Structure formats: structure tokens, C-alpha cells
Amino acid sequence: MNLKQLSLPELEQALAPLAPTPTAVRKVFAAVFAHGATTVEDVCRAPQVPKRVAEHLRAHAELPRLEVVERRKAEDGFVKYLFASPLGGRVEAVRIPIFDEKYIVCVSSQVGCALACDFCMTGKLGFQRNLKTWEILDQVLQVRAEADRPVRGVVFMGMGEPLLNYAETIRAAQVLSNPAGLAISGTAITFSTAGMVPQIRRYTKEGHPYRLTFSVTSAIPEKRLKVLPIEKAHPLPELVDAIREYTQVRRERAMIAYVAISGFNLGLEDALALKDAFEGIPIKVDLIDVTDPTGKYQPPTAEELKAFRDHLQVLKSPIARRYSGGKDIGAACGTLEASQYGGTLLTPRVTGA
């Protein structure tokens, strides 16, 4: 019984033959996630865990951990964790500072990625496997254990397409948001998708409290196909229909992630294409400078970005610019590839410094 793999209802079901009280089950769950137990014995010693439950856990339970290969701190305060899993493969998580108050953790959901977005280093690795729920959660648990500020948000924007690992990522979000788990608000948990239309529709139908952000990058299909091969499987009109349904059900604006690439998708025609594609759909546009270590794609100049933001006024929608930090350690959006360079190597005792 892998205690990090189970949501609270699943733990209740697993322990049902022992007839524990709801409080006892919740104490086991909280010992693992709220209090970050590192051994089964730590769980067994938690208050209000009955002797028969403790004996069962000692005989049948496990608490696996990812190995921290290294931690690197960037000049801007972002910290990238490189993990190795006993199940195979290496993944990365990024600790993102929000002013001096809190952290958000960007987690990986797959080893590699099958979508092969042309500006993304993870896509160049190819797909190796989906992560298990416990592997996703352990990224957050280990970052939290070393942090000097509370972890108040999680974004599924690391390695992999989270909606292609749907069951495991949703279970992870359920644990993250459970008051007896990591107690992170559902609205502070975000899934980033390149446009998996069937899974977006499923997500909307199931009514999860978490947020989606949709990677569009161009509303001109021919341009989008050049950088996002998913355009072939799920063309932009299909994605827009799914986003329209999402906004209608949730009654909120959809976050449209737009990777800004110099000389490629920053003209007036690009802004007008966005306007036409999303006519009547409440959106907000999140501009993200491309970060491509290969040099094939370049971020916009200040002049290009200003001109494009002016063009985007035709949308009459909120426009924001997302800061993509940790560039000097390979922690920026699109650069995660289990690399080891730059920054300052940290040890557990000074990671939160």
C-alpha cells in the first residue's frame, strides 16, 4: 500500500476492512501529506492512529521517495530541483518565489513529452512514461520540506502534458487541495495544456475546481502547426469550441498562453486572428517570452512587444506578461530537460536561504 498514491477516499477504502473511524483515516492521510512523514513508522506514531491500523501499516504500507539529484538557485531566486525516480527517469520541479511571501511549485507530470512543441526542450526528449501520483506529489512535498516560506500554489507546467496523464494528475490535485492534505486552494492549482480537446471536455464535464490555461501561441492555423504539432490532431477551431464550453460552465475568463516569438507571431494579423478566433469568448492573454536554448527562436524586442500589446487592444481583453524565471539554470518555460548547469548549487540546509 503506497500511502502517497492514495486520495483520501481511496485510503478510506483501503483501510475499510480494519473498520477505522473517519478521524483515524484522516490522521493517517494528514500524517503523510499535511505533516510530511518520511517513514511508515512516523505515520504509525501519529496521534489517534489505532493500534490495529498501525500494525497493518507496518506490515503492508510504504512511503517511497524521489531522490534529489541536485538543487540549483538562479540569479532571480528561482530554484530548480532535479529528481531521479526509482521507477526510472529524471524530472524537474521549480520553486517559484512570489515576492517575499510564498512559493509556487511548478511540477512535472511525465518523463519527457510526446507533443514535440518546436520551441520546447522537453519535447525534444520524446515521451518516456507518465509519472505516478506519488511522484508528482513528492516533488511538492520535498520542496515544501526545505522551503522557508509556505507553498501556496502548484502549476502543472513542468515536463510533460498533464492532461495526457489525466487520472494521475487529477488525483494529485485532489490531494494537494484536500484540507487534510497539502491544503492548497483549488484555484491556486493550474493545469497547462497544449490543447488536448477530449480531456479538456472531460475536465469541464467533471467540474473540477482547478484552473486550466490553454497554449495557443498563434491563432493562424498554419503558424500554429509550425510550432505546435498538436494542431494537426486537434485543430484550433476544435480547441476554441472546447474553451468556449469551459468558460460557459465556469463563468470565468479562459487564460490563453501566448508564447511571443520575434518575427513570427507578433504582427497585426496575429492579433486580428486572435480576435476572430475568440469572438464572444471571455479570455485573458498571458504573454510569455520564448526561451529557446538552441537559438532557433528568439524572444521579442521591447519594440515588438509594445507594438503587439497595442495590436491586442482589439481584443478588449486583459493582457498580462508572465515572467519566466530561472533562465540561467534551465528552469524557464520550455527549457526543462533534466539539465545541470548554471546558478548556485544548494544543499538542504541552505536551500531556503
Can you tell me about this structure?
This protein has 353 residues and is an alpha/beta fold. The chain has two domains: 8-60, no CATH class; 67-345, TIM Barrel (Alpha-Beta Barrel), CATH 3.20.20.70. The protein contains 13 helices and 13 strands. Strand 3 and strand 4 form a beta hairpin. Helix 1 (8-15) crosses helix 2, helix 6 (133-146) packs parallel to helix 7 and helix 8 (197-206) runs parallel beside helix 11. The protein is globular and about 70 Å long. The model has no long low-confidence stretch (mean pLDDT 97).
Structural descriptors:
single chain, 353 residues, alpha/beta, TIM Barrel, two-stranded antiparallel sheet, 13 helices, 13 strands, globular, iron-sulfur
Q: Would you summarize the structure shown here?
A:
By secondary structure, this protein is an alpha/beta fold. 35% of the residues lie in helices and 20% in strands.
Produce the secondary structure layout.
Layout: H1 8-15, H2 22-33, H3 40-44, H4 51-60, E1 67-73, E2 79-84, E3 90-98, E4 102-106, E5 110-112, H5 121-125, E6 127-130, H6 133-146, E7 151-156, H7 166-177, E8 189-193, H8 197-206, E9 211-215, H9 221-227, H10 230-233, H11 236-250, E10 254-260, H12 268-277, E11 283-289, H13 302-311, E12 319-322, E13 344-346
Parallel strand pairs: 4-7, 7-8, 8-9, 9-10, 10-11, 11-12
Antiparallel strand pairs: 1-2, 1-13, 2-3, 3-4, 5-6
